[in-house]
Amino acid sequence: MDLGEFRNLIAAVRGEIGKAVQGQDAIIDLVLISIFSGGHCLVEGPPGTAKTLLARSVSAAMALDYRRIQFTPDLMPGDVLGVNLFNFQTNQFHLTKGPVFTDILLADEINRAPPKTQSALLQAMNERMVTLDGVDYPLGPDFFVLATQNPIEQQGTYPLPEAQLDRFLFKLVVDFPDRETEISILSRHADQALKADINKAGIRPLVTSEALAAGRALIDAIHLDKSILTYIVDLVRATRSDADILYGASTRAADALAAAVRVRAAFEGRDYGLPDDVQALLTPALRHRIVLSPSAEIDGRTPDDVLRSLRNRVDAPR
Questions:
Q1: HEC states along the chain?
Q2: Which of 56, 88, 147, 293 is most buried, with most CB under 10 Å away?
Q3: Could you give the CA distance from residue 26 to residue 216 in angstroms, rounded to a whole number?
Q4: How many whole angstroms separate alpha carbon 114 and alpha carbon 111?
Q5: Which residues lie closer than 8 Å to 15 by C-beta, 6 or more apart?
Q6: Half-sphere exposure of 274 (CA within 13 A, CB side)
Q7: What is the pLDDT of residues 113-170, one digit of tens each?
Q8: Which bin fits 23, alpha (ψ -120 to 50), beta or left (φ > 0)?
Q9: How many Å apart are CA 179 and CA 181, to the nearest integer?
Q10: Is 145 left (phi over 0), alpha (psi -120 to 50) or beta?
Q11: Which residues lie closer than 8 Å to 107 by C-beta, 6 or more apart?
Q12: Measured distance CA(10)–CA(58) in Å, rounded
């Protein structure tokens, strides 16, 4: 596979996901960038904005295993990771694997589970490995978490701590589609059976595990000029001295942003990164990694506002 073939593959995958998800092209691109860069995504948005449908559509476009966990206040770590159960016939413990043992994991409404259960995903997301009773179980290189959370209803929720937020490459904010897109969605559904599901959307699984590995091998060869790396570092360091930011982004954030820039370049058929790539990915990569100062919150500023202002102040390489 060369860069041209890879670009065509990504375009075809976008088209397949678009059969079920409309009006979220930018979000779809960022999810695909996250998958190919080996990161994870946190998707935030009000109910009914196709967050779960997006995850199911992405999994349908890939020939990979997919499982879903509905996070609830009574969910325990064992419900996510699995447990060792004693088999009286063999007098041995047997591992009953939890839903985390998959390729694509949808962690639906992750902020509804208590911190103990949320933290069960930390090792899995960071090391692609689960440790149960002192034994390590690998999850495989294709493991990807797409977590959702509802920003409106906060009763009975447990906000994700900064350490866990930092494990997500992107935080994607899904909003309601525009009027024309909503009309298009309803028009499409009006021509379907009332109980039509994603399995009837005709999404073809185009990305196999082998194609994913080949794509990542291409991305590994993408060159980032020192000026691009310096630009990324300057942007991240600027978050640590901005008056509107109480706690800035980490070196891990800069490294993750650089990896995402390489993927975006490959998606465009380029073997080099551009300042435009950095600017396009800066906000989704950092909005969950900074903590605003009290004065900025009182003024009603959002992380997106602060990052936009910061991006305008840091000179891009020519």
A1: CCHHHHHHHHHHHHHHHCCCCCCCHHHHHHHHHHHHCCCCEEEECCCCCCHHHHHHHHHHCECCCEEEEECCCCCCHHHHHEEEEEECCCCEEEEEECCCCCCEEEEECHHHCCHHHHCHHHHHHHHCEEEECCEEEECCCCCEEEEEECCCCCCCCCCCCHHHHCCCCEEEECCCCCHHHHHHHHHHHHCCCCCCCHHHCCCCCCECHHHHHHHHHHHHCCECCHHHHHHHHHHHHHCCCCCCEEECCCHHHHHHHHHHHHHHHHHCCCCECCHHHHHHHHHHHHCCCCEECHHHHHCCCCHHHHHHHHHHHCCCCC
A2: 147
A3: 21
A4: 8
A5: none
A6: 11
A7: 888 888 888 888 888 999 888 888 999 889 999 999 887 766 668 888 888 888 899 9
A8: left
A9: 5
A10: beta
A11: 69, 71, 121, 145, 146, 147, 148
A12: 12
**Do 270 and 223 contact (CB within 8 A), yes or no?**
no
Mean pLDDT taken over the chain: 89
Q: Amino acid identity of 102?
A: T
Token match 């960071």: residue? 126
Residue at 38: amino acid letter:
G
pLDDT tens digits, 41-58: 999 988 888 888 888 899
